[in-house]
Recover the amino acids of this structure.
């Protein structure tokens, strides 16, 4: 279980929640699957086939949100509706107006839904109570918010909030690149995006960040909005200006620790999850320190 993208939310450290009652609350909103006329269904599923809704290893919790969606392209619906409209015009000798055409589209949607293919996806979330993290493995904020919204519906009280830091990620990354020096525990890699106030964007891929050209962009007012970094030679990632971590990659030295351990698939899954959660928790602590710590609300 290796996360690829991190959307970060804060929980109170040592959050006083227990797995058993939390799982009972999740069980009220499990994935039921799409019925014949449902375009979409959403609910909790087990992170492991046949397992519980909360997969707990050493007080680290793994949750999975399942989503089923009917694949019914708008172009297909419109084509069937258009064919139906032509039949009516030919048999009844009249033209179909806009309002009736909209009604035909709606009717064809209902008629075609039972025949549509179903796509299923899962979004995983990790809760670290002791360190106060709720981390969603999602490439887009929309998927993370979908997970969080369902969690709020399921749990009576969820004290999760978006992580806020003292230093602006853009300002911090711009300073690191301008100085050519990464914060303690990190190295700067070779992927970079800069943006001006006019939204003009410059991107570098597999390019040294030590050239004068990049510093000239910064001197001209561009700020860094995406920066590739590596933490302690163990995890590489891209940090962006919204404090999202993308393209998370656990390097060979880390995965080698997991190889050969565990006698079966379940044990290997737990070992991977334990290793992943432990390393990412340390990464997040160091990243918070590099960004000046967590911002406190003004009194």
């Amino acid at each position: 279980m290796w996360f690829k993208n991190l959307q970060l939310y804060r929980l109170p450290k040592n959050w006083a929640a227990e797995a058993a009652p939390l799982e009972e609350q999740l069980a009220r909103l499990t994935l039921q699957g799409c019925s014949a006329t449902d375009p979409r269904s959403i609910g909790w599923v087990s992170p492991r086939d046949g397992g519980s809704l909360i997969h707990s290893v050493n007080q680290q919790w793994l949750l999975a949100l399942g989503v089923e969606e009917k694949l019914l392209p708008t172009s297909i619906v419109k084509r069937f509706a258009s064919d139906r409209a032509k039949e009516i015009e030919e048999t009844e000798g009249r033209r179909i107006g806009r309002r009736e055409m909209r009604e035909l589209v709606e009717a064809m949607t209902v008629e075609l839904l039972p025949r549509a293919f179903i796509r299923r996806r899962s979004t995983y979330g990790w809760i670290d109570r002791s360190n106060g993290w709720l981390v969603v493995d999602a490439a887009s904020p929309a998927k993370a918010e979908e997970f969080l919204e369902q969690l709020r519906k399921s749990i009576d009280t969820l004290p999760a909030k978006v992580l806020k830091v003292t230093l602006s990620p853009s300002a911090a990354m711009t300073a690191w690149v301008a100085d050519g020096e990464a914060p303690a525990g990190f190295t700067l890699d070779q992927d970079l995006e800069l943006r001006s106030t006019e939204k003009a964007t410059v991107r570098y891929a597999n390019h040294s960040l030590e050239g004068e050209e990049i510093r000239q962009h910064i001197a001209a007012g561009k700020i860094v909005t995406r920066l590739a970094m590596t933490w302690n030679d163990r995890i590489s990632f891209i940090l962006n200006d919204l404090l999202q971590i993308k393209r998370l990659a656990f390097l060979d030295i880390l995965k080698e620790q997991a190889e050969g351990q565990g006698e079966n698939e379940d044990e290997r899954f737990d070992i991977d999850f334990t290793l992943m959660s432990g390393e990412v928790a340390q990464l997040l602590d160091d990243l918070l320190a590099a960004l000046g710590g967590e911002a406190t609300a003004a009194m």
